[in-house]
């Protein structure tokens, strides 16, 4: 009916033939079909748009939540906990230990400085850790005949040095409950030809020590002196002897007087069956005696101070205050602090020698104090009243030497500085060949100020024998009194760079430790701050996501309504 109506209303009102009206019908049907299709497509499009809008809301949420900048860290709950736990541990550990580090370090250091079976000091003290040398110079008497015949001044020439590598061992240690250690000292010497100026086969002429020692012991006993005169005469003993350097020092040599004394079981006051100034000492554990020394366990300021020698608190060899046994052996000292004197006990002299503060030094980057010999070291009491006791009961000699005859088996031995340096001029004026020199002949000891470690040692001493007229003994009857230089030596040691570097590291450890520990605390604080920043950032992201989602929902609602 509709189609018919439309045909009736068409502008073409005239009747047309059948073959002409058919195409128009087809066109009309196609237009109707297209209109229906467009209507369905519009409905489908609206449905699809609705579903897409609903889905996009969910997609936006997921995309926003998962959106991160490149390389950003996704913080899980466990990671957050780990960050803050690490931060707090670092802060507490670094801050607390940083505050108490100095006390902790001092405690550790003291435990290593005191002598104990497990301390670092003991491992270094029980065996010499650095190269140490004994350099010996021998005096050769060039005009003994002129002296005997005409009382001419004795002429001496210095030979050497004969250099020996020295290693000291502390043996037979006994740890005592009173904070001391009892021990023996063993010294071992090896000849170092490469550093020596001369060989041990060099021949040297000097005073006959055996004959002089026996004569000195009986000089005030008329009958014994006469007996010694005939003994020396029958044995063809002379005022001087010529021996090799090796025999004079360590090897020793046989002497006719010693042979007779040994055969008759007579004690002449000299040790051994041979004579040599160091004979029987090389490798001996007993020669220097038994020492008892403070370990520093009670008070570090007393470490190394002797308490006993040969089981005696005082020596019975010297009178008055000169019999004191204290000081150190020179290889382990308390920190010098403000002290202006260092006292060293010398077993070869059976007493103390005192060194005076001279100046501050820098040794390989370490601060130290240098102590040196002064004229007071061998004063006879004229300048230093406390040393007058060394002249009690003996013939007092001019200042500059120390009578150690009581310590050397009765031999007329006197110790001085080399070439009679700082001694009374009378010693040098009576002989020829002495050339005292402060740089060459001064006794000096440099000590590290914080720990008391020896930095440089130059222990220089000279051995002299007193030659004097003795009426009843022929070879001593018509001679002048003179102090004859026999030898002088220097015991040298220098702290090596290995140990100076270790000490420097120990000295900076308190500051280095504090900086490190406070640095750890600082890192902890930084990590804590970063953690807070990450939490704030994450919170802001969450808020942004919620805002974006809310805004998107509003936009979607508008689109849907349209």
From TrEMBL:
Keyword vocabulary terms for this entry: Cell membrane, Glycoprotein, Membrane, Transmembrane, Transmembrane helix
Protein family according to the UniProt entry: Belongs to the CD36 family.
Main location: membrane
Classification via InterPro entries: CD36_fam
Keyword Glycoprotein: yes
Organism of derivation: Microctonus aethiopoides
Keyword rRNA processing part of the UniProt annotation: no
Name the record gives this protein: Protein croquemort
GO MF annotation list: scavenger receptor activity
Membrane spanning stretches: 81-101, 515-536
Any Gene Ontology CC annotation: cytoplasm
Subcellular compartments: Cell membrane
PANTHER family membership: FI02050P-RELATED, SCAVENGER RECEPTOR CLASS B TYPE-1 SR-B1
Domain of life: Eukaryota
